């Protein structure tokens, strides 16, 4: 159980021994986080995993040097004090969250860790009166501040230009397969397939509230259906498309949003005002689909726009004719 805010110590109230103990536990935690990053990435991004392995070894070396100073000044018993015991001290994200982070996000998280550690050592060096301890903490502050550049050197050592480009390309491909492709399919289904029931209801009843209810039901129902279908039809193991629940979430949410976009205007009581706005929203949705296809799927924009707009126009016309009839 984490201590409450009121029971935490202020950094300014820590003794020099407690500051050293905090630095030791922080280095131990950071080394473990880097090893977790390495394990998370090893199967798909072996070169970047090697970078994090080396960074973990450096944190181990920092911890060893800090323990030597503590042993010289205060003896063998190191007080148990961790980040969560100090009010306002920087926190690390739980290690298990790394399973859900992208390659570039993990690299960015590592850079942020080094910046925070450098600031901690700079403040700690100002707190100590022992020359040897001050020198060590100052050296560690400089080392952590330079880790971003050092990480670049490690990347150069383990990651050639081609390897890094390949890893980045693989990460982008995985992002597209797991999030963009299912989300795009959902947005297309939600935006296009709900056109007919929504506008058929609108022109048949000219009742905005009824149209809104039908549109909401169609959108939510389609979202649930698309989400479950996407998650159930492929577990991602053989296809490499990633976690089924992630794909199902992307597909389901985007399907619902695609339909709700042109259902929400029917909250406006005036029928023609609501219908005009709904038509404008449909136009924006279809062009957004074309942009996503062009941006992520590398489909020529004009071809994507023609396909989407033509399909949407046909479904809209079907709904209007059925409702008007």
Q: Care to count the β-strands?
A: 2
Question: What is the typical, i.e. mean, pLDDT?
Answer: 80
Structural class: mainly alpha
Largest sheet: 2 strands, parallel
- How do the SSEs run, as a string of H and E? EHHEHHHHHHHHH
Tell me, what's the shape?
A: elongated
Highest CATH level, the class of the largest domain:
Mainly Alpha
CATH superfamily of the largest domain: Ferritin, core subunit, four-helix bundle
Low-confidence runs: 1-5
In percent, how helical is the residue content? Answer: over 70%
Features:
325 residues; mainly alpha; Ferritin; 2 domains; two-stranded parallel ribbon; 11 helices; 2 strands; 76% helix; 1% strand; elongated; disordered N terminus
Q: Any overview of this molecule?
A:
The chain is an all-alpha fold. The protein has two domains: 5-159, Ferritin, core subunit, four-helix bundle (Ferritin, Up-down Bundle); 170-324, no CATH class. 76% of the residues lie in helices and 1% in strands. The chain contains eleven helices and two strands; from the N terminus they run E-H-H-E-H-H-H-H-H-H-H-H-H. It has helices at 16-42, 46-74, 103-127, 131-145, 147-158, 161-193, 195-205, 208-233, 244-263, 271-296, 301-324; strands at residues 9-10, 86-87. Helix 1 (16-42) packs antiparallel against helix 3, helix 3 (103-127) runs antiparallel to helix 4 (131-145) and helix 10 (271-296) packs antiparallel against helix 11. It is elongated, with a radius of gyration of 28 Å. The relative contact order is 0.09. The model is unreliable at 1-5 (pLDDT under 50).
